[in-house]
Amino acid sequence: MQQALGLTLLALALEAGFGYPQVLFEHIGHPAVWLGAAIDALDRALNRGDAGARRALGFLGLALLLLPLTAAGVALQAALHSLPFGVLPLAAVASSLLAQRSLHAHVDAVARALENSLEDGRAAVGMIVGRDVAALDEAGVARAAIESLAENFSDGVVAPAFWMAFLGFPGALAYKAINTADSMIGHRTPRHEAFGFAAAKLDDLVNLPAARLSALLIALSAGRNGGRAFACMARDAKKHASPNAGWPEAAMAGALGLKLGGPRNYAGAAFDGVWLGDGRAAPGPADIDRALKIFRRADAGLWALIAALWALSAL
């Protein structure tokens, strides 16, 4: 386990310092893009028949994705660990499964765009959320950015780091595949409600510990609003439609003294989301900046936790 914890710390440091190089993205793409292509191919090949057949084939498709991918992850980790200083290239590859730097950059871009104009803010937030943004006012843009920051701190940072710390590179790789599958096919649409059932349920399961840990880190990073963050988390987290997203979002709402969530539209259809928190309902760019400050503190807390576990494992 010490080896996996060390790998996680090094991968976090590399991703925070350098992100995913643009030159690599331009020439070979990104692991999420490769996973997306594989999931799309499985969807086109297997998603057919009645609801029962689609659900069964969804389980098969997920197995066809995860089994060879995890085996490849195990083989790559073993091969690199057999080399002198092989942990360095392994950490560089593993860093591509984390999103500290890119998440901060995308959410910060929303704040800067919103300071310029509402239209720029809508365009920027449309890059990171799935909801319809054309009718969002300034408060709606800011809420969407803050909610995305809180949820993706869990999904894009804490969860892959958690599974990497416990199961090494193969664990983080498998998590990334499950999370990508859920984002692509885990929706209650006529095409994917049955076929994506396995991906959605497995994603709920693998995100369960990280969502609670993310909320705890956010609440502990809230300063004098820490008590309010814990109270909001305890009261409102389970109101969310997702069994996991409500935890970091409720903690962030309490930490900022805001109301997050509420009604929104997806693909032209209204979704009557619950409100999380009991503070102001009209955040602005300054509140996005406050949320980013909490994110940085919470991320540092994650580093500290993994470093402490690494030190303890060496005793």
Description:
The chain is mostly helical and 315 residues long. It has one domain. Helices cover 72% and strands 3% of the residues. It has 12 helices and 4 strands; from the N terminus they run αααααααααααββββα. The protein has a two-stranded antiparallel sheet. A hairpin with a 2-residue loop joins strand 2 (264-266) and strand 3 (269-271). Helix 8 crosses helix 9. The chain is globular, with a radius of gyration of 20 Å. The chain starts with a helix and ends with a helix. The chain crosses the membrane at residues 58-80, 157-178. Pathway: Cofactor biosynthesis; adenosylcobalamin biosynthesis. It comes from Methylocystis bryophila. InterPro entries: Cobalamin_biosynth_CobD/CbiB. Belongs to the CobD/CbiB family.
Look at the helices and sheets and give the structural class. mainly alpha
- Portion in strands: under 5%
State the domain count: 1
Number of strands: 4
Question: Count the helices. How many?
Answer: 12
Considering DSSP H and I runs of 4 or more, what fraction of the residues is helical?
A: over 70%
Low-confidence regions: none
What coarse outline follows from CA principal-axis ratios?
Answer: globular
Q: Could you state the order of secondary-structure elements as H and E?
A: HHHHHHHHHHHEEEEH
Give the C-alpha Rg.
20 Å
Termini separation comes to 12 Å
Q: How are the strands of the biggest sheet laid out side by side?
A: 1-4
Oligomer: single chain
* Average pLDDT score: 93
